[in-house]
Amino acid sequence: MSGSTRRGIHFSRLYSFSCFRSNFRDEHSQIGQKGYSRIVYCNDPDNPEQVMLRYRSNYVSTTKYTAVNFIPKSLFEQFRRVANIYFLVVACVSFSPLAPYTAYSILAPLVAVIGATMAKEAVEDWRRRKQDVEANNRKVKVYDKNHTFKETRWKKLRVGDLVKVYKDEYFPADLLLLSSSYEDGICYVETTNLDGETNLKVKHSLDITSPLHDVNAFHQFKAVIKCEDPNEDLYSFIGTLSYEGQQYPLSLQQILVRDSKLRNTEFIYGVVVFTGHDTKVMQNSTDPPSKRSKIERRMDKIIYVLFSMLILVAFVGSFFFGINTKKDNENGKLKRWYLRPDDPTIFYDPKRSELAAFFHFLTALMLYGYLIPISLYVSIELVKVLQSIFINHDQDMYYEETDKPARARTSNLNEELGQVDTILSDKTGTLTCNSMEFVKCSIAGVAYGRGVTEVEKALAKRKGDISDNMQRSGDDDVDLGRSVKGFNFKDERIMSGRWVYEPQSEMIQKFFRVLALCHTAIPEVNEETGEIAYEAESPDEAAFVIAARELGFEFFERSQTSISLHELDHESGRKIDRSYTLLHVLEFSSARKRMSVIVRNVENQLMLLCKGADSVMFEKLSKDARNYEAITRDHIKKYSEAGLRTLVVAYRELSEEEFKSWEEEFLKAQTSVSGDRDSLVDEAADKIEKDLILLGATAVEDKLQKGVPECIAKLAKAGIKIWVITGDKMETAINIGYACSLLREDMKQIVITLDSQEINELEKHGDKEAVSKASSASITNQIREGKSQLTSSKGSSISFGLIIDGKSLSFALSKDMEDSFLDLAISCTSVICCRSTPKQKALVTRLVKKGTGKTTLAIGDGANDVGMLQEADIGVGISGVEGMQAAMSSDFAIAQFRFLERLLLVHGHWCYRRISMMICYFFYKNIAFGFTLFWFEAHASFSGQSAYNDWYMSFYNVFFTSLPVIALGVFDQDVSARHCLKYPILYQEGLHNILFSWPRILGWIFNGIISSMIIFFFTTNSILLQAFRKDGHVVDFEVLGVMMYTCVVWTVNCQMALSINYFTWIQHFFIWGSIAFWYAFLVMYGAVSPTVSTTAYRVLVEACAPSPFYWFGTALVVVSTLLPYFLYRAFQTEFRPMIHDVIQKRLGRAKMMDCGKDELSDGDLLVGR
């Protein structure tokens, strides 16, 4: 693409005009002031003045910890949890005489749990460290004192260094582009790592530096850059270059950002401006907003409840201990003489019973510490990580076409997927493919294109008038021969060159010539096949260039100064080559909503070619060139109703005088380095884009993704509300809503819009205050009317859909109106927000999240959806055509919208159920164990004596009960994945938080207390008053402790077996293995010297195992303890079943009958709720 000689007009100027010399005025006063104080000495990094500035090195670290701060910082993270602080205090106090057990028995499990979590943090941080080392040690060529380029590592680069980067290499820092392998100093950059977009961006150097092409040219090169300080803004740069006594303004077009890649350019030369953590990519690498699931937040409250219970139990124990202690030496009578109340200590003194009770309170706080599950947090973290691995490896959410699996980018929100109340979705690229196809067009008032879109089919089906032609439209591709990506146009009147015979052939020629010239696409020729592919900035632009090619205007070459076409001449009917000199490109922006090019043709005519949104283009038309405006508007409306995206195409001829006068003003605006440069450029462009001649309009289709209607219908059946927030026109959005089943025929529409005659009249007069006042009143009235419709239809089966446009939304989101708008919206089944800005998307999401207090999920695919994704409780990014920025900012990433069905209804339901049951079971097993200590202490006159050996208690949460609950959290399923999808109403268990409601949590706590009572009282009353062994020996303290502990281990593990719905060999191994390990531990620990094993010395082998009573008593107590829960579940399943109970019951019957019938109605499933 580079030319062999320099020309007067350079290709770089097509993209920006800051290469021209600037006339510096007052607006440059920002340079040198606060925020614009950076000074870079180019090719002179050792300059004393620059050394004094002490800029950061190019070393980059993304790790959370360093070798120095890992231990203190990681410990701080662990002890932010109140439960861990409690256990730390207990461990410290356990070294005092107050402790009811040895210090090491409480310290060991705390160290194990904290150590495991810290090890996990260390492994994750080490992986980040390895990535940093790899990046910091990449090689780049830097200009040294010997006037040659030598290789060095990225981390050794300094501000001011001159570097050379080759094709397909990453930029090692933020660079100022000096020159490139192209003579004009342009280069192509891929920014996938920054914004996820795969299209190439064009960058260019200043004219003054572009001749620097070889090593010798840099011998005397010295310059000074003064620019903005490091900041995170990827889309602007303000600075100046002082070179050879002159100053030149710098813009973003000369900046090459770190971690972007050089493409389609052999090499570039650049100067390092920002290094390391000062680079724009590192300035943007902030942590995403911290999100916690509702279950995790409620879990914290339960911990506080347990702490309250702990304090209450400790208080009760110390209260009665104080009373009993006081009675031990009442009026000189020694009641419990064996405790020697006549020889008291500070911990037991009948004369100071209050002080003794206080110390007992401290002892009890440690003794009953097992009410707080020490391993809960680390177990949940482990389970969530394993759940995320299952999500990542789900083959049913793998998209083969793009080789993209589902990705859980965080494991904190797995269970939140099972509680989603509202989904807020983007449309383009999320519900649709974002793969545009040219389908129809309107030229000179004539509509062309006979294809039928999916939306038109849905529209016709809704109206009940599907014609045979429409039914056959899907088969038309066969007749056309080869299919062309981006082109789905069918019309025999203008295809195959027949447009030359049309009455308006000249207008048709100009129309497609505009499409072939008005773009920034780059042609890439396949050397083997000779076929031309286009690298375009958007799918729409690629579709226009392809359409022009297919209809006789093939864009095949772009040089520094021209665009060349193979054109079909309408007079001769032959293909000819025409070259157009490209003078300026007025780029598209969301504010301008249009794009223009200024070209000079071979006849020396100056032409402005323009395409843009109808909302701005019609007002730019010449008063004398509106012949086809009314009919074109009508065509655009019909195209929008068919779900198509439309653009208006126009042109005008320019005189030499007008062009030169405008160009001078435009270049002056372009060379400004003030903060409002963009607005100055837009104002200048606006002055030339006027008096346009209308040619027609284009219509491209963005097809729905596969499975979208079915997915939305299934999610609606699950009780999930779905909102679509899009930038499309209202007609397009409504018809897309019907096509994807978001809107239904039986649904009434509430439409809120400011497109009224009264508002339009006020806007024409330009009285902004009057427009605002009238608009606000209109929206208030429309919301009130909508509410009245909902009120009047209460009790009926009518459902409503709310549609609101962007202008109306800006008023509806105001402080005085947002509550009433939200009340209306949440009462509707579906909501569509049209013409919405990215900011409005985020504001609507925040309103729904805070206003309803329920879980919101946002899903989108583009950079404009990032705010919405981060604002929602759960952000799901689509890794689609618009790049990876949404996916990189999300909590979960999927390749297609339809995978959301499985993510929520299967993984969401399972994860919610597993985590809920896991937490409830954790509290149950700890309360069942902890309260046996309380009952024993009451039995022992609240003496503070523990019922169990120290190491029994230490290993309870770590070895004997932890693995089964982890298996539950990872593997349990109430129904299979197929039935989760088949019966979406099952999802409502999470939607209504049935499995983790306060009644259910308190029910499990009550079950734990009942279990502890049965274990203690049944055990003590059955063995204390009779012989335990053949030789007549009765039970002693050690045997009682072992028997009670055995009953606890058996009970909580069998309770797990009763709760599990889906057994695998892993569950069996962990449940029965935990019980077996208890016996193995007793044998091994009991074999150790009695000075170490104390009360456990040979207790199983010599005392318990030989006694049949130990085995029969254990079985009796365990069965008795499990019986209440078993009877409760039997009653509930039969008379008050939950949804999953009904499904399990019916499926079980169907399986037993071997009839294969497992169909259930929603009515069947709702019974008993």
From TrEMBL:
Domain P-type ATPase N-terminal, residue spans: 40-105
EC number: 7.6.2.1
Pfam families, alphabetized: Cation_ATPase, PhoLip_ATPase_C, PhoLip_ATPase_N
Record has ATP-binding as a keyword: yes
Any Gene Ontology biological process: protein localization involved in auxin polar transport
Transmembrane intervals: 82-100, 106-123, 302-323, 357-378, 918-936, 951-971, 1001-1019, 1039-1062, 1069-1088, 1108-1128
Enzyme's top EC category: translocase
Location of the active site: 426
Name of the molecule in the record: Phospholipid-transporting ATPase
